[in-house]
Design a protein that fits this description.
mainly alpha, Ammonium transporter fold, globular
Length: 441
């Protein structure tokens, strides 16, 4: 399973750096089993809560005529991700990967390994298998949420859901197996602690290919190449979504330690929490300063994405940096977002919520930054992982998007886009008292 054996060994190496004794706490095997399982469950429901964060962030950054559609997409993709990860994703990511040339596991349903009867539980495994599955499952939903925000306001509902089926059931598990399933990238020394590349960049590549093939929203780019801003429905809602994501990230990174049965593990989780928090802070401050410097005004949406970019940046290695290093890593992520957003506009790639700069660009940066604070990892291994996963996810996603484009069609009609997804796809409105005509372009 994901990074399991990394736990004790790495933290014994880094304990001197953190000023902590390497001695493990004297707890029974059953107590360690309970604590490890509890960490998985707490981390899992925190990451699940990130689904609400993505939903609120995206709802605030789209126009009122598309808010209900975004809400449906987010709750729908979370449910689809869970079902697909049960049907095939988990075993494809973790089952016999090394034996199968290190490229993927087996196509089979995940099956629970324990019952509630105490006499049937083997605590020597270190954690409940159901808690492990739950923790891994919520990660795949995060990757799908990234795609939702980028393609908002013009993609059809059911083609999007079909893409989520393939992404969560096949694309994400295969590339994830290369590292977390002890596949070929793991053998080359690639390291991605909690998924800057395996989760965030994967979602970013899938979103980028979709955005290119889908095209920009009507009216986003003028004939002369100028960019027409399209304000969202609620900046307070987007801000709330960012805070929810920030909170959920403690489960995302902290529980990726995968153990809480010793004093060393407890110290490691604490260090990860601190670094995760401060990387986000660095991203916010850097984005605020950059927008003030470049545009003479502070952009709230850039500050929000700066926080998320800081979080994505630290996700590949949230343990070994000092708090000061974590702030710098997050700050660079925030700067990259501010620079990447106008670059996408120059290329006429319409990313409604800025997910590509946040999750793809900052995800690549965070992955490449790992060797700076972890001497056991090489830049060559990290570059290999970034390129290999980027190529695989982009090609696989493009194939799926093209099949959908030339069969079902992926874009709403111009008339439906003008009416908004809420009326066109759902036949209702998130804010009916406003009237659907008020947000027309």
């Amino acid at each position: 399973m994901k990074k399991l054996l990394r736990g004790t060994g790495l933290f014994l190496v880094t304990s001197a750096f953190m000023g902590v004794s390497a001695a493990h706490a004297e707890v029974s095997e059953e107590t360690a089993y309970i604590l490890n399982t509890l960490l998985f469950l707490i981390g899992g429901f925190l990451v699940m809560w990130m689904a609400a964060g993505f939903c609120m962030l995206e709802s605030g950054l789209v126009r009122t005529k598309n808010v209900a559609t975004i809400c449906l997409k987010n709750i729908g993709l979370y449910a689809i991700a869970g079902i697909m990860y049960y049907l095939m994703g988990y075993n494809l990511m973790y089952m016999d990967v090394a034996e199968a040339t290190g490229f993927m596991g087996t196509f089979a349903m995940w099956g629970p390994g324990e019952t509630a009867a105490a006499e049937a539980i083997d605590v020597s495994g270190g954690y409940s298998s159901a808690s492990d599955w739950f923790f891994q499952m919520v990660f795949v939903a995060t990757a799908a949420s990234i795609v939702s925000g980028t393609l908002a306001e013009r993609i059809k509902l059911f083609p999007f859901f079909i893409f989520v089926v393939v992404l969560t059931g096949v694309i994400y598990p295969i590339q994830g197996s290369w590292e977390w399933g002890a596949g070929w990238l793991d053998g080359k020394g690639f390291s991605d602690f909690a998924g800057s590349t395996l989760v965030h960049s994967t979602g970013g590549w899938a979103a980028l290919t979709g955005a290119i093939l889908l095209g920009a929203r009507k009216g986003k780019y003028a004939a002369d190449g100028s960019v027409r801003p399209i304000p969202g429905s609620s900046l307070p809602l987007a801000t709330l979504g960012t805070f929810i994501l920030w909170l959920g990230w403690f489960g995302f990174n902290g529980a990726s330690q995968l153990a809480l049965g010793s004093a060393i593990d407890a110290v490691a989780v604490s260090q990860i929490f601190a670094n995760t928090n401060m990387a986000a802070a660095g991203g916010v401050v850097a984005a605020i300063l950059m927008t003030k410097l470049l545009y003479k005004k502070v952009d709230l949406t850039m500050a929000l994405n700066g926080a998320l970019a800081g979080l994505v940046s630290i996700t590949a290695e949230p343990l070994t940096p000092t708090i000061g290093s974590a702030i710098i890593i997050g700050a660079i992520g925030g700067i990259l977002v501010v620079l990447a957003v106008p670059l996408l506009d120059k290329l006429k790639i319409d990313d409604v919520v800025g997910a590509i700069p946040v999750h793809l660009v900052a995800g690549i940066w965070g992955t490449l930054a790992v060797p700076i604070t972890n001497s056991d990892v090489t830049f060559g291994a990290q570059i290999t992982g970034v390129v290999a996963i980027g190529a695989f996810v982009s090609i696989a996603s493009a194939v799926v998007w093209l099949v959908l484009k030339y069969t079902l069609g992926i874009r709403m009609s111009e008339e439906d886009e003008d009416r908004g997804g809420d009326l066109a796809e759902l036949g209702l409105e998130a804010y009916p008292e406003f009237g659907h005509g008020s947000q027309k372009l």
